[in-house]
Amino acid sequence: MQYKHNQPRPDRAGDEAPADGIIEGRNAVIEALRAGTQIDKIFIMKGEVDTALGHIASTARSQGIVVADADKRKLDGMSRTHAHQGVIAVAAVRAYATVEDILQAARDKGEPPLLVVCDELSDPHNLGAVIRTAECAGAHGVIIPKRRSAGLTAVVAKTSAGAVSHLPVARVANLPSLLKRLKEEGLWIFGSAADGTTSLYAADLKGPAALVIGSEGSGMSRLVSETCDFLVRIPMRGKLNSLNASAAAAILLYEALRQRLGS
């Protein structure tokens, strides 16, 4: 059933999540879990030992959903109804792909894989912008970690300008393990780092490649950085020495595209 924007949706079990992806209240979250709603993360009030909340947490974890503690201020800030009852779920706007889905997409196109790996991008606007640019540049998919990262929320979808509907996004538990697996699949791992030893324009991005973009504040984590084959630096000529994460991703992606087009 379709609903016009000016008509309220009925609040029944199994209905889609609200437009902003927020599902709040114990019964609403329990029904969303029971209905198989794609949930990105569940926040439960820190210190609560309620049986219903414990049931929500255990059910969510059994489905592979991240459960995080949150203080009352955070939940109050997220709440739309002001009656969250100590639990808020954030629905994913679409199902996550698998890493194999992304690699198969490259095979289907007969192209060397081009992946973007985001190392703990917590700002949903940054993640959405990266997904948008990756889709425009012809990347085959984006990979994010399950924890300490924005997910496929409504804000990410909006910032991506619809790219989340076209580009597969996978979520993994451990990025260093993921990078090792990609190496076994024949991909070279290029990490973006201000102190990288390889200039971007000297890097060969024509073959199978994964481009790793670090977090907004501290860049790549140590283990992720150590797993990269190359640490690539973007030339900087101004007084500042760093770029926004989504801007860095755009520069790397379009250099890879330029090289692949042979121009």
TrEMBL record:
The keyword Acetylation does not apply. Residues 1-20 are annotated as: Disordered. The keyword Transferase applies. Residues 22-97 form the RNA 2-O ribose methyltransferase substrate binding domain. Pfam families: SpoU_methylase, SpoU_sub_bind. One of its GO terms (biological process) is methylation. GO terms for cellular component: cytosol. GO terms for molecular function: RNA binding; RNA methyltransferase activity. Keywords: Methyltransferase, Transferase. Belongs to the class IV-like SAM-binding methyltransferase superfamily. RNA methyltransferase TrmH family. PANTHER family: 23S RRNA (GUANOSINE-2'-O-)-METHYLTRANSFERASE RLMB. This is 23S rRNA (Guanosine(2251)-2'-O)-methyltransferase RlmB.
